[in-house]
Amino acid sequence: MNKLTVSSLIKIICKDDMALFERASIKFENILNNTVNRISENINLCSNGVYFKFKNDPDKVSVKPMLAVSDKEIPGVPTLVVADSRAAWVDVCSYILKRDNTKSVAVTGSIGKTTVKDIVYSVLKVAGNAIRNQGSLNGERGLCTAVSSSNGPIDYFSCEMGLNSPSNHFAIMSRAIRPEVCIITNIGSCHIENFRDKAHILESKLKCAEYMSEETGLLLLNADDELLMSTNYRHKVKTFAVESKNADYYCTDIQLNNSSTDFTAVCPDRKLSVHLNIPGKHNIYGALAAIAVADKFGISDELILKGLASFRTSGIRQNVYTVHDNITVINDCYGASPEANIVAFNLLDSMKCDRAKQRKIALLGHISRMGRLSEQVHRDLGKKLAEYGFDIVVTYGGKSGIFTDEVNAAGGTAYHFYDTAEFVSFVKSILRPNDIVLCKGVHKSYDFDKYVDQIFDTDFTPEITPYFGTHADVNCLHVNSPAMALVNSNSRQLICGKNIHEKRNVASLISLISAVAALENMNLNEKVTVSANVSRYTNGCRKFGLKAGERYLLKDLIFIALKYGAADAIYAIALYYSNDLNKFMKIINNVLRKAGAANTVCVGPYGKMNTNCYSTAYDMALIASYAMHNKQFADLMSQEVIIITELTQNSEKTVSRPTKLNTQQENDDHLLYSPDIKILKEGGNTLSGQCIIAAKKYSDSGYNIAVILGTEENEFTMLSYNETKCLLDYIPE
Predict the structure, then answer these.
(1) What is the dihedral of CA 228, 231, 235, 238, to 10 degrees?
(2) Nearest to 67, CA basis, from 54, 79, 81, 84
């Protein structure tokens, strides 16, 4: 940060707006020559620095920075108001890197990118002042935090870039760091729920090289990755590999130990004997990539070997350590994917058992973010897991029970748990001295690292807590969605449920209650006139386009309200019943009482995006069960397409609501087509996530009702449909 003044910082931010620069120069005249010693997004770190505000931090600050950059004035703080404060911070960091003539390396890939980034950093830091983004802060924030935290001129920057959707920040980051080397570790299935396929992932990741020079830049690729090797590139390419001997950088004479790895690196012009103080054949990829980077930057072999030998793992990324009773733990709980799990299995397999009765145990969690591929991914990986022959496999949560099924089917020993406390308690009970234990799960959605800490804490005693439902231990009924319920409509018995009493915003699912209330208090063929007041209540909502004065049959309005999700249809019904909405709300509340929905509060007939309008998965299942006992409602919901008539003009319109469940598509890879599943209502907003209520007939008069709440959805995921189908395809014995 040396030699950066407030004046130069303002000039960088206002580079394209001279009028803003002139106003800012006058406004901050008294501090223009002050040196900027610190830049941060954390107000508590900016007592005499520059604070970039782009989060929902409170405007009242306890620590007063020298200058704040924000999209609005902060009371009591000198504030430079800009349109995009995050972009402004990126511009400042880009200037610093250019000023320091920093040699930058962009590292991306589906798995292993953080470890490769750190290995590259270990080599670069012995050759000069090097920085890296911390942990997995692999977006713009991580870039800016790394640059802003540096002391002195920056010689090298090992910058990890991560993405979870096609609309990513790679081009922005590439422009900021202007990389001289871009490393792609591999292309796997991570976040594939957000992409068309692996080729789409590669296409998106290649944007890391968007601003790399075609003349002098270097694209470093893993030659063992088939997709990477079958693609054409516009940049100069060099390769590294562990298996292939045709790469520019490859290895021989590999020696694997429980705490280290030795090998010979075969480079284009020489060989190097490399020692890594970490176990695992997969780490050779990072070492070879780091050697190639060092060669590009002219770093000596002595410094390369010193940097590689100094690398250590820590935290929850393949961290190998010893706990009580000489138990070896491989803690790899940051994330999981098919490819990452295979790497972890290989690492456990390579560990040497040199003590009597020493066992290899795998503790495995569900692999999240697999979307439509989840079932098959777990099945295929389970078959592969069984081939390793580990002494014991213990799985927890989601579809990880499929691993257990496959291992047991192959004659191995495996156990599955759906309750975390039981999982922890069981593992603690089976551990013996000298065991080698792989812990592979996801820390964000499953807190797997927390359970690992509890397992190896000798003082921790878990409390056994019950799981909901008569079939709670059936692994195919475990879902990623935050809350769900599967209920028999006749008996109202809970078959399986997750967070069933958790109060959540359920978006427009409230319309289902309104439809039932209307059916119980009005005639199905009643002619409803659309009130002019409908538009007052439907601003920002999904609408069918009803106009004041139009007339429709009640059944048609209910269909488009539920199948199409039209707010104007629900309000047309409510205001026709009474111009006083409170009267309609009374009949809604009466339905709630009769359905037994004790934890549901409606503040309108359609559903509002606020925390005062809520229900639960169990309540919505009870409401849907109650609704399906109304034959008129059940018959109407069994239709997928109807012709509605506007009665004043006698004009007809065909209305349908295609989904992956009710529409069969040619070459449909998602295999979700289920015409016997009827979606009663679906909807979503930023507060509720995606929500679905659906029914499937299991007898002449009975239905199973599935409710899914809070799913994170996009065009590739279709998770809510996938999990709805999963629940309703299950037939209890």
Answers:
(1) 40
(2) 79
Kindly list the strands in the beta sheet with 67-70, ordered across the sheet, starting from the edge strand earlier in the chain.
39-40, 50-52, 67-70, 79-81
**Cβ-based burial of 55 (10 A; exposed 0-12, middle 13-18, buried ≥19):** exposed
Least Cα distance to 107 among 55, 51, 177 occurs for 177
Q: Which helix (H) or strand (E) holds 263?
A: strand 261-266
For residue 447 the two structure tokens come to 């807190």
- Which two three-digit tokens encode residue 709? 């709440």
Secondary element (H or E) of residue 591: helix 581-595
Rounded CA gap, 608 and 128, in Å? 56
pLDDT tens digit string along 168-227? 688 899 999 999 999 999 988 777 767 788 888 898 889 899 999 999 999 999 999 999
Q: Is 484 left (phi over 0), alpha (psi -120 to 50) or beta?
A: beta
pLDDT confidence tier of residue 466, bands split at 50, 70 and 90:
low
Query: For 251-287, what is each residue's pLDDT tens digit?
Result: 999 999 888 999 999 999 999 999 999 998 999 999 9
Is the per-residue pLDDT at 60 higher than 70? no
Q: What pLDDT was estimated at residue 227?
A: 93
Mark which of 309, 327, 348 sits at the end of a domain.
309
212 and 305 in a single domain? The answer is yes
The closest of 671, 650, 646, 653 to 661, measured between CA atoms, is 671
* Distance from C-alpha of 149 to C-alpha of 156, rounded to nearest angstrom: 14
Amino acid at 315: G
69-74 contact pairs (CB < 8 A, 24+): 69/13
Residue 349 domain boundaries? 319-455
Q: Which residues contact 413 (CB under 8 A, 6 or more apart)?
A: 391, 392, 393, 407
Residues 604 and 498 reside in one and the same domain: yes
The answer to the question of residue 476 being in a domain is: no
- State whether 226 and 118 are in the same domain: yes
Q: Is the dihedral of CA 228, 229, 233, 237 positive or negative?
A: positive
pTM over 0.70? The answer is: no
Angle separating helix axes 113-124 and 301-309, nearest 10 degrees: 130
**For residue 512, what pLDDT is reported?**
94
Above pLDDT 90, what percent of the chain? 56
**Same domain membership, residue 490 and residue 450:** no
pLDDT for res 57: 61
Distance CA 524, CA 347 (A): 65
Token pair of 235 as six digits? 């940049």
Question: HSE of 454 in the Cβ direction (CA atoms, 13 Å)?
Answer: 18
